Amino acid sequence: MKIKDGFVIRDIMGQTVVVSTGEASETFSGMIKLNETGKDIWEGVAAGKSEQEIVDFIVNEYDVDEERAKNSVSNFVADMKDKGFIVD
Question: Is the torsion defined by CA of 66, 69, 75, 76 positive or negative?
Answer without folding.
Answer: negative
